[in-house]
Amino acid sequence: MEKHVGTDRVKRGMAEMQKGGVIMDVVNAEQAKIAEQAGAVAVMALERVPSDIRAAGGVARMADPTIIEEVQNAVSIPVMAKARIGHIVEARILEALGVDYIDESEVLTPADEVYHLNKRDFTVPFVCGAKDIGEASRRIGEGASMMRTKGEPGTGNIVEAVRHQRLIQSQINKIVNTSTDELMTEAKNHGAPYEVLLDIKERGRLPVVNFAAGGIATPADAALMMQLGSDGVFVGSGIFKSQYPDKFARAIVEATTHYEDYKLIADLSKELGTAMPGLEMSSLEPQERMQDRGW
Amino acid sequence: MIRIGVLALQGAVNEHVNALRAADVETVIVKKAEQLNDIDGLVFPGGESTTMRRLIDKYAFFEPLKQFAAAGKPIFGTCAGAILMAGDLAGEEQAHLGVMNITVERNAFGRQRESFEVALDISSVGESVEAVFIRAPIIQKAGPNVRVLAEYDGQIVACQEGPFLACSFHPELTEDNRLHQYFVQMIRELKISA
């Protein structure tokens, strides 16, 4: 009975267990406990939530390991953390700390403008963001075990996540209906590995779990993303930048489970206090758009 | 035809549905407690046990699930599902449904980087059954009426107590559905004897 660690089944399987759940950004042990109590399936340990990263400007890097360890010690649910795109050493540090999942994230300032990490080299699984099927396929080709929409992080504006999820779903549908002899040209057009597109065609879906992320600010936003075919949601600034984080967190968890029960979501949405402040996309300068980082 | 429900509050629901369909039974995705009345058996899928427990409480599933178990209807729990079924949780004050006389230790193998897959011999089920362990629990102690079906590294990872079946790992993440077939067989035998 020889055991194997870090196989595709073990890495992708971890994300399968998160389905139908909410993964919440937290910056300390206290927030992590609130998230766990509210029913989060995992927490993302950060130094700052995306809206604060946006406000602070400058170079955003991996969190201080002290914060990650503090969060790991506070909760029993999985702990994720972010590494900069292409930053092999940050990713290795997070792996050494024993984080359960690494987000190679455009929320942080990229360390490499050409290459993403070769995620197959790692035992720890990775989640990556994508705007379209080409980007998702490239990340899966590099070994990502979970995908998420990029959306536009830290804005509290759902429009970009909706755009990305709708595009990816329609591109999946198109690939399923493309005959195999046309698939190589599709691969060329999308800049996607042929084998990944073939896998998508055969399964009728991405070969890994696909969550929504970037701009989810209310229970209705979370339910919307589930209806558009997401397997679960990441909520970044949306929870701890709202007026009553605890209530907000619980409401988002329930709306994600029962995303078609509108009466219930109406009840959940009552007297939640103020959601996080939102940003209109046209108010962002090109260099402020996090979704354009990564390739 | 046998109808088996999969508790669908959170977790890897579809994988169980597919494995059960391959074992030739009708499946029901259970989101409301009243659906428990229409099924012959229930699967607690893998996922996050704390999340599932919160949603069990919130949507008034707790008592109906206890009654389902008390009526002797079969339940199969994988990973987080086994945690929900345990009578005791090591290092924690409160267990969840407590339908099996077992003590379960959560995350017993460590963090995700320690997660693994292995081929297991499971008594009554088969040899070299593919088993995927993800931040898996172990069954630390088992009561006198619990039959140990499989061990790994000296620890119990699959067991049965009457109509209740629990395992630490995820048979639903593999194409090997012998454990699901075994669960279906358990239900068939109960139906015949009833």
User: Beta fraction of the residues of chain B?
Assistant: 25-35%
Mean pLDDT of chain B: 96
Biggest sheet character of chain B: 7 strands, mixed
How would you classify the quaternary structure? heterodimer
Number of strands of chain A: 9
Helix content of chain B: 25-40%
Strand order of the largest sheet of chain B: 2-1-3-4-12-11-10
- Give helix and strand order of chain B, one letter per element, not per position: EHEEHHEHEEEEEEEEH
Helix content of chain A: 40-55%
Which strand order spans the largest sheet of chain A, edge to edge or round the barrel? 8-7-6-5-4-3-2-9
Order of helices and strands of chain A: EHEHEHHEHEEHEHHHEHEHHH
Q: How many beta-strand segments of chain B?
A: 12
Please provide a written account of the structure.
The complex is a heterodimer of chains A (295) and B (194). Chain A has 13 helices and 9 strands. With 295 residues, chain A is of the alpha/beta class. The mean pLDDT of chain A is 95. With 194 residues, chain B is of the alpha/beta class. Chain B has a 7-stranded mixed beta sheet with strand order 2-1-3-4-12-11-10. In chain B, strands 5-6-9 form a 3-stranded mixed beta sheet. In chain B, strand 11 and strand 12 form a beta hairpin. Chain B is globular and about 40 Å long. The interface between A and B is large, with 39 and 41 residues.
